[in-house]
Design goal:
By secondary structure, this protein is an alpha+beta fold. 26% of the residues lie in helices and 13% in strands. It has 9 helices and 10 strands. Residues 1-37 have low confidence and may be disordered.
Length: 274
Amino acid sequence: MMIKSRRSFLKVAGIAAIGMGAAPVMNLAASEPHGSAQPVISKNEEALHAKRWGMVIDTSKLNEEVAEAVREACHKAHNVPDFTMTPDPEKYPGTRPFRDGQDIKWIWPEQFHYAFPDKEDEFLAEKFHHLPFLVTCNHCKNAPCVQACPTQATFKREDGIVLMDFHRCIGCRFCMAACPYGARSFNFRDPRPFIEETVPGFPTRSKGVVEKCNLCAERLAKGEQPHCVEASKGAIVVGDLEDPESEIRGLLKEHYTIRRKQELGTEPSVYYIV
């Protein structure tokens, strides 16, 4: 049975690799999958739209307190587990914390030399050594994770948001290997016991599933800003990169910005004002 399952998986992976050129068609079908683990989203006249969503992070407005508030708001709203916490012994007897670094992260503060290894300089301004640079999924224009996924569990919408269909994920972690930003996490065990208070409006995941930032697609569909934007005190702006009149384009015109590992050709949609 194990050999048969492995052969079936390799067959699917091989077909996916050969059919990369057909990815856009398959992605369209995967954007509204039957039994999707994504929140049920209905059309709303107040929904926020963009030809290509992007994010600008103003590092001058970030400090450790703001960065932690952003991380906490995002993780709490999306039921991101904390494997270092001790689960409720009555509900999950015998379940112990997971302390070997296999944590789940959607958005988190990182040091400059880790976030931008290609921009490290011997005489780098001292302030950059102490700033918390918030990093997350870059929702790349040329997303390698989408091409690497053999089941289309990872797919990109027409508006540029890269999403996960948790039900389709088979845990192969090809997308994690393809992502050059370390923006994806894998659930090595059932994450549900490690969620302090489950938010009913967003699905929980299961063991063996990859997860990441979804740019709060469920909130944009309701006309609301992402949780990170609301918690950032003006440090994060999300908008339409294709609209010359949008706030985000105004910021890009006014300030010098950098992107992570831009030389790789992935075209990240997250910009940093420095």
